[in-house]
UniProtKB/TrEMBL annotation:
InterPro entries, per database record: ClpP/crotonase-like_dom_sf (IPR029045), ECH/Chromodomain_protein (IPR051053), Enoyl-CoA_hydra/iso (IPR001753)
The keyword ATP-binding is annotated on this UniProt entry: no
Main localization (coarse): other
SUPFAM superfamilies per UniProt: ClpP/crotonase
Alphabetized GO MF terms: delta(3)-delta(2)-enoyl-CoA isomerase activity
Intracellular or extracellular location(s): Peroxisome
Taxonomic classification: Bacteria, Bacillati, Actinomycetota, Actinomycetes, Mycobacteriales
UniProt KW keywords: Isomerase, Peroxisome
Protein's name in the database: Enoyl-CoA hydratase/isomerase family protein
Gene3D superfamilies: 2-enoyl-CoA Hydratase, Chain A, domain 1
Keyword match Isomerase: yes
Amino acid sequence: MLVEIEDDRGVRTLTLNRPEALNAFNEALYDATTVALREADEDPSVAVVLLTGSGRAFSAGNDLVEMQARITDPEFQSGQYGFPGMIETLTALRKPLILAVNGLGVGIGATILGYADLVFMSTAARLKCPFTSLGVAPEAASSYLLPQLVGRQNAAWMLLSSEWVDAAEAQRMGFVWKVCEPDDLLPDARRHAEVLASRPISSLIAVKQTMVEPTRGEITAAAAREYAQFAELLGGVANADALASFANRQESK
């Protein structure tokens, strides 16, 4: 099962379950996550959604093998929802979303934090927005959400440098709310989720609606700009070289 689902006290925990690939998002995982998020949002017994990863990673981002196949394989099949569907679902999510970042978060494994209402991060976790190292543009409306969350210069460093950011730095920036020791991460995230879940769901939805509705149009516009830039750069020289280098490293393992 690509996304494990557990319900407890009004909290639905969704666990990305592709540990052999460090929970990298292929089309199947994008689809499974989108469906799980939509079902949680529509389920009247669910008050809060908690998203985490299995194994040693939160998510290694886009599956680069599939990214290369998208360029080179004329028969490549996109998923039913894919990346755009998941981003649209995150943008429209009515219920509080809590992330428990248990390990490395790369690409969408980092930019998804922009859609969370609360982020908990393990001291063992690290984040990276690797777009310039892959020769592509930002994604997931991160060009809008990151400056809003962490300020222009912190966002510029993350998006331009493709460098790692550790948990302490992510908290200093305001990218995460609480940093926890690895064994405390899920219990602490769940404890806070249960506090929220003890409140009326209608009120939780109303609070989130009033907070995020002013940004939804901006998120959609930013995502459209990013898609256009990404499409222009995907398969270009810098991107092709980066993907070939990745493929060579995989073959040599």
